[in-house]
Amino acid sequence: MRFLVRDRLLGIGDDYWIEDDQGNKVFLVDGKAMRLRDTFELKDVRGRVLIDIRKKMFALRDTMVIERDGEALAAIRRKRLSLLRNHYRVTLADGTELDVSGKILDHEFAVEYDGELLAVISRRWRHIRETYGVDVVRDDADPALLIAVAVCVIHLAEKEREG
């Protein structure tokens, strides 16, 4: 399953649609302005909130938290020791960890579980400027969760670069 994300509107308070590879709107990323912390909602086409994404307020390292129906689903933070490439760790509520690595700011990275590829995020597949693709490679993977992970990782990397 491939999804197209337009990323020129990644600011807090901005909304943008995520489309499938046929050009159909699938998810809306709703940036919540006027909040003390970075907050997004991932909604379906009917406006139902599928996933809440927010920056954790009190953490030693920048951390984004993903919730579904008010329950913690995952926490994303940069790995401490990553010398050559950008690495982020996604810790799911059940303790499972996903590894995110690659050129995050270039939107060229992968999401893996125990060495198995779950999704590839890339600008290479897209001819439209300021967009990137999220290719969910496993049929049993949760596309909404993997898109939320991509949005969080890119947001954290951009905040870190701004310093």
UniProtKB/TrEMBL annotation:
Superkingdom classification of source: Bacteria
InterPro entries membership: LOR, LOR_sf, Tubby-like_C
Stretches of the chain forming a coiled coil according to its record: none
UniProt-listed SUPFAM superfamilies: Tubby C-terminal domain-like
A Pfam family of this chain: LOR
Similarity annotation: Belongs to the LOR family.
Name recorded for this polypeptide: LURP-one-related/scramblase family protein
